[in-house]
Amino acid sequence: MINIPALATGTRTTLGGVPNGAEALALARLAESGGDVLFVAPDDRVLAQTAAALAFFAPNLACLQFPAWDCLPYDRVSPNSGIVGRRLECLGRLAGDAGKGGRIILATVSGVLQRVPAPTVLAATTVELKAGARIDPGEMIRALDHAGYRRAETVMEPGEFAMRGGIVDVFPPATEAPLRLDFFGDELETMRPFDPASQRSLADAVPPKALLLGPVSEVLLDADAISRFRSGYRAMFGASGADDPLYEAVSAGERMIGMEHWLPLYHADLVTLFDYLPEAMVVLDQDVAGALEARLELIVEYFQARLEVAGKTSDDATVYRPVPPATLFLDEAEWEAALGKRAVAALTPFSAPSDGSASVDLGGTRGR
């Protein structure tokens, strides 16, 4: 593949000769400039394939993944805790390393379209732990409470923590196994992965030397968030919202399945993934246009479906009052406006067009 010239901000360049499977090579070449590169995939399958290819072709490049929620818009179920953990870990790293550059961030159309908590929220609820560093265990427990972790007698599930003397067990949603933090006074000596079933250390697991401990959910039920939700819910849906099981649960500080779909009501402001990457180049997979159109249509379709049944039931247990799409998702105009401020590269497996538009042919061809 040939060298790619610098792409100007505010322009869209077609990168031709990038067949399926070669996206990682193009991304690695673009990241050589030292700036961040945001790759937008049409779906999770392409994202996973690109991540695997990058690990092979460019193992030394920092690569972060930002998956989308694994549920439909305006669903009654919550997103998977592991996926939420990976999303928040990505946002936490971007917020903590602002301006670092030289990273490849992999996301899907659905993930980029959805609004997210502001960087200040992640910064206030993320704690960096390092073996050998000093940290007050009591201060860390307060940080875990603030980040939404649940106190338990024995840690079994993601989002739980327990404290026994100088030992703190915690299960971050982004890790495969819980960790046992061994303190000597205020010094964190070790962080050992353990089996939640047997509560024994995993002999074959490599203890991490550092860990970014972020929030367990994009919804934090502290006093300010509950107050914002209550006032915002009443303003948006009227006084009748007080009879809603969701409203009652949040008012009591209790989590409820599916509560994440009212994300705008818990936060003073929501931003987008673009705001975490103000200088990043954006690379669009060849199938992004179709995926974007389908996702925007799906959001509107499910919102309208919820509106149609919202006033037709008197059963408080089934009432569902959806927030307007503009409060939770980008629309097409906002998407285009965000791209218009950046250097954008659109991948295609075909030869670069020769119609005078900005284009570069990387020379890749499809295999048999």
Number of helical elements: 12
| Secondary-structure-derived class | alpha/beta
The largest sheet is: 7 strands, parallel
The overall strand count is 16
Poorly predicted ranges (pLDDT <50, ≥5 residues)? none
Instruction: Name the quaternary structure.
Output: single chain
Radius of gyration: 22 Å
Strand content: 15-25%
Amino- and carboxy-terminal Cα gap: 19 Å
Spatial order of strands in the largest sheet: 3-4-2-14-15-1-16
What shape does the CA trace take? Answer: globular
Tell me, rounded to a whole number, the average pLDDT: 88
Q: Roughly what percent helix?
A: 25-40%
Element-by-element helix/strand order = EHEHEHEHEHEHEEEEEEHHEHEHHHEE
Provide a short characterization of the protein structure:
The protein is 33% helix and 18% strand. With 368 residues, the chain is of the alpha/beta class.
Q: How would you sum up this structure, described in words?
A:
- This protein has 368 residues and is α/β, with parallel strands linked by helices.
- Helix content is 33%, strand content 18%.
- The protein contains 12 helices and 16 strands.
- The strands form 4 sheets. Strands 3-4-2-14-15-1-16 form a 7-stranded parallel β-sheet. A 5-stranded mixed β-sheet has the order 7-8-9-10-11, covered by helices on one side. The protein has a two-stranded antiparallel ribbon with strand order 5-13.
- Helix 1 (23-31) packs across helix 2 (44-57).
- The longest helix is centred in the last third of the chain and has 23 residues, at 288-310.
